[in-house]
Amino acid sequence: MSGTPVTLNMSAPTRGARGKPPRHFVDLTPEQRVEAVTALGEKPFRAKQLATHYFTHLTSDPAEMTDLPKASRDTLAAELFPPLLTAARTLQADGGTTVKTLWHLFDGAKVESVLMRYPNRSTLCVSSQAGCGMACPFCATGQLGLTRNLSTAEIVEQVRAAARSLADGEIPGGPTRLSNLVFMGMGEPLANYKAVMETVRRLVAPAPDGLGMSARNITVSTVGLVPAIEKLTNEGIPVTLAVSMHAPDDELRDTLVPVNTRWSVDQTLDAAYRYFQVTGRRVSIEYALIRDMNDHAWRADMLGEKLNARGKGWVHCNPIPLNPTPGSIWTASDPAVEAEFVARLRAHGIPTTIRDTRGSDIDGACGQLAADEEG
Prior knowledge:
By secondary structure, this protein is an alpha/beta fold. Helix content is 34%, strand content 17%. It folds into two domains: 25-80, DNA polymerase, domain 1, CATH 1.10.150.530; 88-374, Aldolase class I (TIM Barrel). The chain contains twelve helices and eleven strands. The two termini are 41 Å apart.
């Protein structure tokens, strides 16, 4: 595969071009960070100090960098930590353990992240694009169209903000660490391949050069960009791959996931299976259950058969009760239909778990807050 990002020309509109985010410390490799601080007249070791503040202490506030001379810290912060995200709205659910944030980016673009604390882990769902170009008709973000890709720093800043909130004990349950990350917010992660993979590298790099997270606790989702899945297969970073299927047959999936007209169900599943073969990492199959649309028992059988045709033990299926958007014709399946769908998959030996639908009372589906602001 070439090193160029995957580009797509889908039917959803692309908003007007916006400016490039200012250079941020996170966008730089450790070597480039040294070059950046020395270019500002500082000693090379300042780069490590700044990395420690950002990735270990989770701060970019010069007032907290007390081991740096005041004149130096103000200059370094101004040059290397430009503000990229501003929290515009914050909504809470589940007793404060689910927090959804609408961020305004430096150019006015809007993205969302959702922090979810569970008894044994804390998970952040991040956005990788402002809007999305995949045009899935049941998705709030898909109806916004694509504004632009996020930079590495804009994605990592979502992570840092959540990690700092957890470390400071702002989420009920006392101080804790961010353990899991899912690229399931706004946007198609593999359509912003370079920035997403650079983000993963920052997250898994050991302190002080990164957050020291486990790659196995990071999930990268895709609607099925086959060339990018193949590229991810060869990265050598054992993230979890999640494929949003939503239909096992091309006829329906062409409508629900328009990119399927380019890469079919079978091509997508073949690429996902290759990912498992090379990495040994079990693939997640995401399936939004939509009433009277894709929740038929025979479709569960078809999905189970297609998954088993490629091998055993390589997937885990996550049916997701659809979180409907206001005014949408799409709605969640009847609970009895959902139960039958799950039972059929399990009868085929497919490990199946209904996805937790946290945040439904705070417009939990990513894109809803941004859509509200867009009117």
